[in-house]
Design a protein that fits this description.
It contains 18 helices and 11 strands. By secondary structure, the protein is an alpha/beta fold. β6, α15 and β7 form a beta-alpha-beta unit. The radius of gyration is 36 Å and the shape is elongated.
């Protein structure tokens, strides 16, 4: 992109160089006029000549001020086309590819790139012409002065050049670590009551501690390379001053005049050292910032990011003799349930309202603990309830909520596209849009929750009627997005049961497991359940299990198992089995 902008910009660059040359004249005369004023004027007893040289230096300052004024106009003429090119690229990509981050790039990142680039051009130009004026002046005063100053200056610049790459990478790592820590602390603060209510204080503290440690390591590494930058300034700017003062007796004995020595000191302290400091500071910080911004602006140009590979891995789910009741005197919702879900399998859970389908998913998720038996899962899992939770924050923060580190924007957008939420993100304003949960419909909240689950690095996905507000086509697309993961879902429509590898039919007195076709062939109850086109109301004593999805600890969990001991029996329902809810047809 920069090459495209530089083409045909020779006149602008020539104008910038010309005004910079005029500006650098004051640098040359600063030391040279001072040396002549001392040697040919005041020390020789000719005060008028000395004053004349000082007047010439003053006139050069006025000319330099004019050059400085014109330089800013030339810099603007050079930088603004680059800004225009960035805007053109961002808008074109946003229109062509429905780039959801286009608004943020236009309003923030493009302007930051322009301002940073302007500063870098000014700093680099100042150093080049200031150093040229000072070095030419040193050579004009006495070639040996150039030898004393030039060697350390070149060594300092070489050292700084070596540190530029590592310094930029460390700066980017520190900025990324700081952003992740801020996001983590903001999410924890917003959900503090829920974290406390779910007993997830230790997990929240551990998660924040990981971010803090990462930022600390990045800061230490950045400080290390920052020290190398300071060392480069010391070698290139301050060591020549020490050498010049130390060699002053020898220089005076070998023909260097007192005025030339004073002029050389003026070049070092008033021109070279400040210019070198500005160069190192500007390239060391602003240069890293510009690199980060330009990388984000130009990332993925010309192509839409491909959906991420599904999270794969062995994720067995086993329930052995599981018993669960809501209270010591209550009848068990699940009684001696045995179930094995194979890795990568799609299992649909069907049954009337209140039979315990949500309870079963809560046990697998680790939100509930069995009264007896054991629940074994070998991986992390994510649970999406029917009442999808969306919090007041950016879409980026909502979608990346289950990830230990916030994924790149391309991955979040790909997850949204996979579950069918891409048009919704575009309409809301992209990943930087701040959500108002009250302004979203039920289906919109479910799409965001599904995209969040898809972006999570969890091989086991649990959908508790998480698509009930979507139309059948959108529901089918969302379920297909989780192909390759182990998927357990509460079937809301017959289509979910048909698409599943197996169906677990929960019917109070017993549970049946088989394919959709097998259950249709042998189970009158299943035929009755799937043959109705409406959904009956929930039982008066329907399953009271509801998930508060705010607490992250309740939604994702580490692989492991929960073991309890007690009586065994059969699967039973809480309530009158005769009042049955049916699966909706498509």
């Amino acid at each position: 992109m920069l090459k495209r902008v530089l083409r045909g910009r020779g006149r602008v660059l020539g104008r910038l160089a010309g005004w910079s040359l005029l500006e650098s004249a004051q640098t040359f005369l600063l030391g040279f006029a001072l040396a002549r004023a001392l040697d040919d004027g005041f020390l020789a007893g000719r005060a008028a000549a000395g004053l004349g040289w000082l007047a010439a230096a003053g006139a050069a300052v006025l000319a330099g001020a004019l050059g400085t004024r014109r330089v800013y106009g030339a810099v603007a003429a050079f930088v603004e086309p680059i800004r225009d090119e960035l805007v053109r690229d961002v808008v074109t990509r946003g229109l062509r590819e429905a780039d959801d981050a286009a608004l943020s790039r236009l309003t923030q990142q493009v302007e930051l790139a322009r301002d940073t680039l302007s500063g870098l051009v000014l700093v680099a130009r100042t150093f080049v012409f200031t150093a040229a004026g000072a070095l030419i002046g040193l050579f004009a005063l006495a070639p040996v002065l150039l030898a004393v100053v030039g060697g350390p200056l070149a060594a300092g610049l070489a050292l700084f050049a070596v540190t530029l790459g590592p310094l930029a990478r460390r700066q980017e790592e520190f900025l990324a670590a700081d952003e992740r820590l801020a996001a983590e602390l903001a999410l924890t603060a917003e959900g503090l009551r829920d974290v406390a209510a779910s007993g997830a204080q230790e997990r929240a503290a551990a998660s924040a501690g990981v971010r803090i440690d990462a930022e600390y390591r990045a800061a230490r590494s950045l400080a290390y390379w920052g020290t190398a930058r300071t060392f480069a300034v010391g070698i290139g700017g301050r060591l020549p001053l020490v050498l010049l003062l130390g060699a002053a007796p020898w220089l005076l004995r070998h023909g260097v005049t007192a005025g030339a020595l004073a002029g050389a000191l003026a070049y070092l302290t008033q021109s070279l050292l400040p210019a070198l400091q500005a160069l190192v500071q500007g390239l060391g910080t602003s240069g890293a910032r510009l690199t980060v911004v330009l990388r984000r602006l130009t990332a993925g140009e010309g192509s839409r990011p491909a959906p991420p590979e599904p999270v794969r891995g062995e994720c067995p789910v086993r329930l052995r003799g599981v018993v669960f009741a809501y209270g010591p005197g209550a009848a068990p919702v699940l009684d001696a349930l045995d179930l094995t879900v194979r890795p990568g399998e799609r299992l649909a859970v069907a049954g009337p309202s209140g039979i315990g389908k949500s309870t079963l998913l809560g046990l697998v998720a680790g939100v509930l603990r069995p009264d007896a038996g054991e629940v074994v899962t070998g991986c992390e899992r994510v649970l999406v309830p029917q009442e999808a939770y969306v919090f007041t924050a950016t879409l980026r923060e909502n979608l990346g909520y289950f990830c230990r580190e916030l994924p790149p924007d391309e991955a979040l957008l790909a997850s949204a596209d996979a579950v069918g939420a891409g048009p919704l993100l575009a309409r809301l304003g992209g990943l930087d849009a701040v959500l108002d949960p009250a302004a979203l419909g039920n289906a919109e909240r479910q799409l965001i929750a599904l995209a969040r689950a898809h972006a999570a690095p969890a091989p086991l996905v649990l959908l508790d009627e998480a698509t009930c507000h979507l139309d059948p086509a959108a529901e089918a697309r969302a379920e297909r997005a989780f192909a390759g993961r182990t998927l357990v879902l509460v079937a809301h429509r017959t289509g979910s049961a048909r698409r599943a590898d197996r169906v677990l039919l929960m019917d109070g007195a017993h549970a049946e497991l088989g394919t959709h076709e097998e259950l249709l062939a042998r189970s009158p109850f299943y035929r009755d359940l799937t043959g109705t086109g409406v959904s009956h109301p929930a039982l008066p004593l329907g399953d009271p299990y509801r998930v508060d999805p705010v607490a992250r600890a309740g939604l994702t969990g580490d692989g492991g198992h929960v073991v309890a001991h007690g009586a065994v029996g059969q699967v039973q329902a809480k309530g009158d089995v005769g009042d049955r809810g049916a699966l909706r047809g498509e």
